Amino acid sequence: MLQQSVEDFEANSNLQFEATRCCICKVDDAEPVGVGEDFEYRTSKDTFLAVRCRRCDLLFLNPRPASSEFERIYPDNYHAFAFDAKKFGLVHRVRQRLEARRLINFAKGMPEKIRVIDIGCGDGFHLELLASKGPKSWSLEGVDTDQRAVMAAREKGLKVHQGKIEELGLPSESFDLAFMIMTIEHLYEPTKTLAAVLDILKPGGRLVIVTDNVASPDFAFFKARHWGGYHFPRHAVLFDSKTLARTLESCGFEKKSVRTAMSPVNWVYLVRNWIDDWGGPRWLVRQFSLESPIALAAGTVWDSLWTAINRGAILHGIFVKPKR
Predict the structure, then answer these.
(1) How far is CA 323 from the centre of its chain?
(2) Reported pTM
């Protein structure tokens, strides 16, 4: 199987790329920060460049794969398409417990009967948790652009729309709570998506964003090449607390809170990327993945220490649509 995957990688041709610019400042005035490869899925032979805007500090991929390459850079075995209990075992059960608690906390103070939408819902993992752990009075929907993800979610009986939220024509002011969980970093035009989310939220409605944190120590130590949050080439734009708030506020949202939270994933993947990059044995590389409970447990303990001083690996941002 390993030989086959190597042969597939060797057979891949290079991706098509497109130039871009800062989605906040709308200019191309950036300095290089890191360069790396698709260490996780090896979808191409290319290297990828992360740059930082000199005006606002936003981090983004430039150049980035063309939109026509999406199906290739998100292969069939991409974890968000099928994060199932059978494959991920103990990791799946632990994540269910932790994520359910977080999701319910994000909705604190909201009415009992609300309409909720998960944007970039993948296979519906979080929608399933909301359905089983949240109030039965909640009305739940999801959105994803990838047909494979949408099919997987619908097979679970979930109501999921396929397409971009800005192109679906959902009714204005019809949702109370929106989630974007590890979604915004994948977007090529995040401000357009956020404007559409603002439109479908009711006045006073809440948007929860979870994304990687470029002000974390793992980024500071490994930004040159192996940082796990790069997720080359799938993460197009990356934030710290200031650039996240600035982006949301530029789209008309008001900041309620932005804080860091614990996540072991980027710590685990930076080790994996380093080992893989230096030609380590495949059995060792496989010990550092989303299927590795020991590595994830160690990363959890380590990142919990940083989270205690608000330097955790991910950001939790809560924003609201202003009331009239």
Answers:
(1) 28
(2) 0.92
